[in-house]
Fold each of these.
Amino acid sequence: MSTSRLPKLRPLDIKPTVHQGRPSLFLRDPLDLSDRYMILPQALGPALMLCDGEHDAAAIHAALTVRYGLRVDRDVIEQFIQALDESLFLENERSREAMQKALEAYRSAPYRKPALAGNGYPEEPEALRALLNGYLQDVTEIVPLPAHGKAVLSPHIDYQRGGHVYARVWKRAETIAREAELVIVLATDHFGGFNQVTLTRQHYATPYGVLPTEQTLVDQLAARLGPEQVFAGELYHRREHSIELVVTWLHHMRQGKPVELLPILVGSFHPFIENGGNPAEDPLLNTLLGELRPLVEDRRALVVASGDLAHIGPVFGTKPVGIIERADLRALDDALIERLAAGDGPGFWQIIYRERDRTNVCGVAPFYLTLQTVEAAEGERAGYAICPADEHNTSVVSVCGIVLG
């Protein structure tokens, strides 16, 4: 390959791992433009940062040597860049062509296929029904709210770990879910851009059938927010699990009866924390809220926020979780849940901002936007759990469920 090329890395899912006993980095494309992944020695992490579109192979080699003290053969750097290119991990003509083909295939399909069916949960309707009913049978003390409820804050963790919390919150929301005429889903975009709103016109399928996306509303919302912006990351819908896992429960509680969806992925609010900003002052988010609020007022619409709480421990780049850390986590979660149950979006955000989101709450954006959409709705905690995230139980994810009436 030519050393004059200026490799620029696409947005990737990069996680620490251990490979053959050595600290390593696992690279995967969240858009799945190819079926490849890469495992690199952790020491080569700086080489990834240097793939910024401004350094060629020679400059990357020199920077690694001078700036980082890494002695790596020039041939290794060129092979490294070539491997990134062949995996479609670089922003160039090859990856753009692959993305266009993937987008055309996604849009031309009759619906978005369940990405986790057959892996994260049963693909066959009867087996799925038995699984979810099993969770529901263990929460017989939960009484469904009347149909006037406005919002559900649901986890999106896998069913194996969070099934009992899903069951508690969705049993509480059973009547609301069955009576809804429109379901607006605000869900965590784990891989999309910061403070980004991503739409799709594609329908969502579950093992029970197809939940149609209300395409007229999508088009109206896109026109207000900017079509180029809101469809730029549309392919994230293809593999993102945060909408899929909650609408599968929604479809189950409706006994397989379809309902129109407005599926929305929302990106991280971390720039507000880093820059001292406030989501309440963001023009894009205010436009989004201005479009969603009338839908809740004018139609029997249910807003579903798909998000989990804390992600801490070595798996998430923080220190191991022990007794003290668990107690601290529980106290912070209780404070956040209190604000969520009170329908207090600004108060919820104040805690996140004050704490610098030190527990990595992945539901910040959907939770905040849902509270700001339904406005002044109050509810109560329907479920909570701290779930293991590694085999040593030193990394954990906490989840909660709340129904706002």
Amino acid sequence: MNKKSGSLDRDRVRGLLAEGGARPEDLERYEEYMSRRGFFGRVGAFTALVGFGAGADAALRGLLGQGLIPVAWAEAVETGAMQSKPGMTVHNTRPINGEFAPHLLNDDITPSERHFVRNNGLVPNRAEKQDPQGWALTVDGEVDKTLKLTLDDLRQMPSVTKALLIECGGNGRALFDPPVRGTPWKNGAVGCSEWTGVPLKEILNRAGLKNSAVYTGHYGEDPPIGDHQAFSRGIPIEKAMDEHTLVAYQMNGQDLSALNGYPVRVVVPGWIGSASQKWLNRIWIRDQVHDAEKMTGYSYRIPAYPVPPGSRPPKEDMEIATAWIVKSMITRPEANININVGDKVPVRGHAWAGEREVRRVDVSTDYGLNWKETKLRKPSSKYAWYTFETQVAFPNKGYYEIWARAEDSEGALQPARQPWNPKGYLGNVMHRLPVLCAV
């Protein structure tokens, strides 16, 4: 460390980069990163935080040696935004999109007022007025009998209530490097609420599926913006017939809110959130993969193979994003909390893995050099999130990070650095929570 100048010793950083297998030119990448965000002064702050005690070598080797920067630097540029739900960070208002900080998502069942909002179109007037008059759900296409169901019809059908997780396909997009275009979600575009409704398979059985039925196409009442088509997504018949896929009309025991899909929505748990169509009024059964605007090109699609960061593979090499991959989120403590040396700090959070199970969640307080297994509690239903808990303590004063890394039932682990794709989908990089330890 060069404490006189308040900066990191370049030769030392280069040595740690080489030791960690990173490219020497990553140092220039850090400097460019900090320069474009006005972060040159934060190098000195980092020195002050970790420039003494056991934290210094661990921070340099665990962060810079893996090509990472302190998460506190990145979080320092976050700003507040308008709110349409208390505590929600709104990224844009037309259409409205907003998320919640992880510490506000600590509940096993996400309250409706803290469930993220992801819209592609405008909120329908019917939803704003909470008026079901004139609404109906049409089921047509490759069926034996076209159905037209009112809200009362749905409520009279046998219903179920399940805790089911929904996560925006772009959650974590702000953590991609190089940056990608789109709503800059961090970690909070996810929620696990209790949904009440009719299993979609019961509705499809009532309509009668023809042998030619292979895919659904969902449509809603939300008006499109500009010259875009009305937002529409779909799922394979096999997923539609899963007992957990619902046509839901209640969330946490209450009618759906305007922002979360009133009067009815699809809930397709385990898959990216765009499959869970809001303000639903039509299910078109197709004899082919649904080909609406948001099912083609680069929309909600990922490369069929790993691609170099910053590249854009041809459209024919893109495939539909479906199930989420293993992921975790720390909800306790709150980011940037001040703690005392030696204090036992409770750590809590959630984990999920799409169509797979979560096998374990580990945490690290020394930048990934060592890991500690947490106590993992299984969810109440297949597609709800798991909850993990443990305690940590810090032996010295300084800047630290708590890292969480989940592993799924097939051995897949969350990565330390985010694999890249051109639209920033399925981001599952390890969650890193900054803390400051005082005497």
Amino acid sequence: MIAKLISADKRVVFKTALYNFIEHGLKFVFPAEPGSVVRGLPTAHSAPVLKDLFVADDQYVWPSADGKVKGQAINPLYPNQVKAVLADENLYDMLALVDAIRVGKVREQKKHWSY
């Protein structure tokens, strides 16, 4: 509310403000540094929602014992995020897009999504 991303009653999201925050502030507030190679669930440009849009040699994953892909670890925003996205494909897509901004190169960050 203080940042003017949602209304005082928490019922309305101010979309323009939220999009501006995601595009310009997210990587500063929730920075991510690719870590060691682990098994996990693909994220950022490696996720199913983006993998056909970008060609990349590196893979990024949220660490998970159930993961089938090896890639550099990206710490998820929330501890139970992997469990949540496995139950909700739309949430998976959205959080993978967020990670494309958190760890992506300029090409991923500047791509305007019409999701």
